[in-house]
Write a structure and sequence with these properties.
The chain is α+β, with helices and mostly antiparallel strands. Strand 3 and strand 4 form a beta hairpin. The chain is flat and about 50 Å long.
């Protein structure tokens, strides 16, 4: 167990949250039960999931005082993929990015791309784009302050 924590801490220091999620996805893809190295990929996925939990738990929390919000710490702490999943928007991995059906217009073929490493999105159907704050503003129909407060 202690060596798992050590390995997970090494990944925490090496990757950001989006990269860790990508590593977990790749462990799923590579870890096929009929492959010889299935045990390795199962072990690696556990290490990566532990690293994700550590990264989230140790992330600096935004500084919030009455009338003041440290916007940079909000941006550093936010995860657009998690925000979209909280809204019930299903995303699938597309390389290092994610894609899904756009929440802003009706479509059958996914044209909504999420660039997790940049915390940004773009819909190639309706041309909606922006960062996670713009996303919350548009989904909830609220202003900038209310959107930042929801992060």
């Amino acid at each position: 167990m202690a060596e798992n924590i050590t390995d997970a801490m090494e990944l925490v220091n090496r990757f950001n949250l989006a990269q860790l999620r990508h590593e977990a996805h790749m462990a799923d893809v590579r870890g096929r039960p009929d492959w010889d190295d299935y045990g390795y990929w199962t072990w690696y996925k556990e290490i990566v999931e532990t690293a994700i939990q550590i990264k989230i738990a140790t992330a600096p929390k935004p500084v919030v005082r009455y009338g003041y919000v440290d916007l940079q710490s909000v941006r550093d702490h936010a995860d657009i993929v998690a925000i979209l999943q909280d809204y019930g928007i299903k995303l699938t991995k597309a390389g290092k990015n994610f894609k899904g059906l756009c929440p802003f217009h009706t479509e059958k073929t996914p044209s909504f791309m999420v660039y997790a490493d940049q915390n940004r999105y773009h819909c190639y159907g309706c041309q909606a784009h922006g960062d996670f704050i713009d996303l919350i503003m548009k989904l909830d129909n609220v202003g900038f302050r209310e959107a930042v407060a929801k992060c």
